[in-house]
Amino acid sequence: MPIIGKEWFTDVAKQQPMVLYEDISQGCERFVVPVYSNPRFFMDSSLFENFKYTSRIIDVAGQLACRSASPTFMCQCAGQCSTNCECSSGVFGEGGTVENMELLMWDTVRECNEYCNCALWCGNRVAQKGAMYPVEIFARDPWCGWGVRASVDIAFGTFIGEYAGELIDDEEAMDRHDSTFLFETKVGSETLTIDAKYSGNYTRFINHSCAPNVKVANISWDYDKIQLIHMCFFTDKAIRKGEELTIDYGEAWWANKKFPCLCKSSECRYQFGNDQRT
Ligand SMILES: C[S@@+](CC[C@H](N)C(=O)[O-])C[C@H]1O[C@@H](n2cnc3c(N)ncnc32)[C@H](O)[C@@H]1O
């Protein structure tokens, strides 16, 4: 494997990108999600041919359909929920951004739901409304593959998308030989998995960084006790247009990986052995 120096990345950034798809979401998002290749190196784009873009959780095994449907959570607030509202976790400030990231990451955050009396514009309805900020998929490099970058400036604490894909149980997850796109979640006390290998949205292209600018929080907007926990992505820094979006995959993900991390951050924790790619 060649040594990747800083010059390689600087040089590649100067190349004119090629539009491979004008909108890989095919209208599933509020914005187009273009895919950019790079003439400087070859990138396998065959995955896009069989990839089904969806911005939703696909209940393949009926895990959600078989839940009891009795509404447990519902507020009686009029218009905007008050700070005393039983649904509100006080995480979202005015405009729906998160002010306190620690609070967001502390536990599952409950948003108001379809049985709540409050308005659709209530500030406790954020992630349920879907992604609002345009992003693009780009050819990062031949080793990491594709990545995601912001198409506009995005403020700190902004919801940018939900990890979408097929909702499967543990047994099915073990049978799927590629664990790259598996993300654990819960429905009530049951642990389930979202697999975004074949179906998903742009979040499945987000790469790892040891100094990430996006965090993944647990959010629910179900009325039922047996709630689906949605894995929701929020910016943890102010993001500039063109900046790559990254998350921390966590130690468990890296535990059995045979390749080094290419995040190039000074805080990188997974550069194994004598790897010279600095
Ligand atoms: C969830 S996918 C992210 C999208 C992926 N880059 C692609 O082209 O489909 C995770 C895979 O991306 C690559 N990857 C992501 N972050 C990386 C990093 N920091 N260093 C090296 N490879 C990375 C690895 O091949 C990993 O298995």
TrEMBL record:
Any one GO BP annotation for this protein: methylation
The Gene Ontology CC terms held by the record are:
chromosome; nucleus
Where is this gene product found? Chromosome
Gene3D superfamilies on file: SET domain (2.170.270.10)
Stretches assigned to the SET domain: 133-250
InterPro entries attached to this UniProt entry = EHMT1/EHMT2 (IPR043550), Pre-SET_dom (IPR007728), SET_dom (IPR001214), SET_dom_sf (IPR046341)
Q: Which residues form the Pre-SET domain?
A: 73-130
Pfam short name (any one):
SET
- Keyword Methyltransferase tagged: yes
Keywords on record: Chromosome, Methyltransferase, S-adenosyl-L-methionine, Transferase
Q: Which GO terms describe its molecular function?
A: histone methyltransferase activity; p53 binding; protein-lysine N-methyltransferase activity; zinc ion binding
- SMART domains referenced in this protein's UniProt entry, alphabetically: PreSET, SET
Know the name of this protein? SET domain-containing protein
Q: What organism is the protein native to? A: Caenorhabditis elegans
Lineage of this protein's species? Eukaryota, Metazoa, Ecdysozoa, Nematoda, Chromadorea
Q: Which gene encodes it?
A: set-11
